[in-house]
Design brief:
216 residues
């Protein structure tokens, strides 16, 4: 009887915890927007990233530039890949509402869900391995008009000697797609369901072992 009560209580706690977790997550999602973005160069190099912001405070156009506390972005990450889709490097220029990238240029129209204007995302501290994707508008915005190239976007990396190299060029724009809100809830449900099933199995095993010992 005591074991049955414990098992029932456990189920109630798990169910309550699951409902609370979903409620909290759903409430957070109601005030958050998360987007994937990607770019591909003419020779096969590519960049993929993710950014998010709080919809309760964000204007229709989000614009970020330089170091320090961001206006709206909560996080911004990017990964770079070679033509064989092997990872070159990954960076998080914006984390917890603060930019650590001095050349950051990011503009997003959340009504059209499009990235536009000056764009410069990645890392460049003049160190070997630094990699970044930018466009001519960003160069002009930084008064580097002498570096403006024939193609709009260019992927750059510093070699072992810290010399800047252009890995790829393209007129392809940075494409954006919204991350489905339900995917996070589904993931949460799956994790909680697995945990609940695992605990049930453990409880059944415990009950079986007690029964065996009682019969011996």
């Amino acid at each position: 009887m005591k074991h049955l009560f414990t098992k029932t209580a456990f189920r109630m706690v798990m169910s309550t915890s699951l409902m609370l977790a979903i409620a909290i997550t759903t409430n957070d999602l109601a005030h958050a927007a998360e987007f994937n973005f990607n770019w591909k160069g003419d020779t096969g190099y590519s960049a993929k990233g993710l950014f998010n912001y709080d919809t309760t405070t964000a204007p229709s156009v989000i614009s970020e530039a330089g170091l320090g506390v961001t206006k709206n972005l909560q996080s911004l990450s990017i990964s770079f890949f070679d033509p064989l889709n092997s990872l070159i490097n990954s960076f998080t220029p914006v984390l917890s509402g603060a930019s650590n990238y001095r050349y950051l240029r990011f503009n997003f129209d959340n009504t059209k869900e499009q990235i536009f204007g000056p764009f410069d995302v990645g890392k460049d501290n003049s160190l070997s391995g630094d990699t970044w994707l930018n466009n001519n508008l960003a160069l002009i915005d930084e008064n580097f008009s002498n570096q403006v190239l024939a193609k709009e976007f260019h992927l750059n990396k510093r070699d072992a000697a810290r010399t800047e190299q252009i890995l790829d060029l393209s007129n392809n724009s940075v494409k954006v797609s919204k991350v489905p809100e339900g995917s996070i809830i589904i993931g949460l449900l799956t994790v909680c369901s697995l945990a609940f099933t695992l605990q049930q199995k453990k409880a059944s095993s415990f009950e079986g072992s007690r029964s065996c010992r009682g019969n011996s």
